[in-house]
Design a protein that fits this description.
15% strand, 375 residues, single chain, two-stranded antiparallel sheet
Length: 375
């Protein structure tokens, strides 16, 4: 007999994907370590390998990274609708939690802009969100980070991502190369793959980003030489970038915003990753109950209390073991409505309430001199 140990299903929560330009459109591979080559590299190849090397420097050897190499001739929005990115997600069997899209555009300082960033990226936000929503409906929840390449340097013209409703999409405006024009997506994905789901990308206790001597925006401007007020405006508009902290060496991500209002439960990548992991656990847990018999009361036709408690306890235990015990959430409550008519609907409805952990996004300290004898 199997099942006596009461084991719970483990789900992948740090698997990431990277979409980059390459010579083989649509080819998907998984690297155990950064690839090397003795052949001459084209500019887009060098960029691709830099992103991969950045990823493994942060995430460590053995981290799971899926690569999708695409043609530079295809627009980013089209990649989300023509099956190219879907093919990568399917080849990874839905394991990818966070997907980074970093289209390297060599020597194009005059690329078209919309809302202050490359038009190719801006026009793909809606398609990226739609695909992520579609995969979540297939129990393969996904968050997407888009490359905010070619920032034009005008903070007033920069679009406000907090006015959007794409809570499964974020925009990265950070670079670790003054001449890159596109973002340091490998660094961000490396941080995602190295931290638990509830943790903010910019958590100071995790230390500065390894190997980043200078942080830039995607217009080549040094992040530490931009006016504090200007960086604050970029932050308030919902972009991810690299910043300095007074008294700390190195560069840190500012936060983990998504393209959604602060009133949205999933305005941050960390909140999204938390609910996505709970989603995966719930699916894996209740998949085992699919098409099983459900005992009902012979007089009322309602599910008997012991079965209700079984369902509630099973999912609570699974999430507690995989998330609460690891400090990823504060707790979970499950509720199965005893009045539902499963004989008529053949549908079991379960409500899950996840209590997240808090995040110190701002810390206010009041300081003053005090004389105890003056009272």
């Amino acid at each position: 007999k199997s099942g006596g140990l009461g084991l719970v299903a483990q789900v992948p929560d740090r698997v990431v994907g990277l979409v980059v330009n390459g010579s083989n459109p649509g080819v998907s591979v998984m690297y155990e370590a950064p690839p090397t080559s003795n052949a001459p590299l084209q500019p887009e190849d060098a960029e691709k390998f830099r992103q991969i090397a950045d990823f493994y420097r942060i995430a460590g050897k053995g981290a799971e990274l899926w690569i999708c190499e695409v043609s530079s001739a295809i627009g980013t929005a089209d990649l989300f609708t023509n099956g190219t990115i879907a093919s990568l997600l399917d080849q990874a069997d839905g394991r990818i939690n966070v997907l980074g899209v970093s289209r390297y555009v060599y020597n194009q300082p005059n690329a078209a802009r919309t809302a202050g960033i490359n038009t190719d990226t801006y026009n793909a936000l809606d398609e990226a969100h739609a695909l992520a929503v579609s995969y979540a409906s297939q129990h393969r929840p996904l968050r997407v980070i888009m490359d905010g390449k070619h920032y034009e340097g005008n903070v007033a013209a920069l679009g406000n991502m907090r006015n959007m409703s794409y809570n499964r999409v974020g925009v990265l405006l950070a670079a670790n190369n003054a001449n890159a024009n596109n973002s340091c997506m490998g660094l961000l994905l490396g941080r995602v793959a190295s931290i638990p789901v509830q943790r903010n990308l910019g958590r100071v206790k995790d230390g500065a980003m390894s190997g980043v001597s200078v942080g830039y925006l995607t217009n080549g401007a040094r992040a530490d030489r931009i006016a504090v007020g200007e960086l604050g405006t970029i932050h308030d508009k919902g972009y991810i970038f690299l910043r300095k902290h007074t008294g700390k060496g190195g560069f840190f991500f500012n936060d983990d915003p998504m393209c959604a209002a602060l009133t949205d439960d999933y305005f941050s990548l960390s909140n999204g990753r938390v609910i996505d992991k709970a989603h995966r656990i719930a699916y894996a847990t209740f998949l085992e109950e699919l098409l099983d018999n459900v005992l009902v009361d012979e007089r009322t036709g309602k599910i008997v209390p012991t079965v209700l408690k079984y369902y509630e306890s099973k999912i609570e235990r699974a999430i507690d073991l995989e998330m609460t015990a690891k400090g990823e959430i504060s707790g979970v409550q499950a509720f199965v409505d005893p009045n539902q008519d499963i004989l008529a609907t053949s549908t079991l409805n379960v409500e899950l309430r996840i209590t997240p952990v808090g995040t110190n996004r701002t810390i206010n300290v009041t300081i003053g001199l005090y004389n105890p004898n003056a009272a």
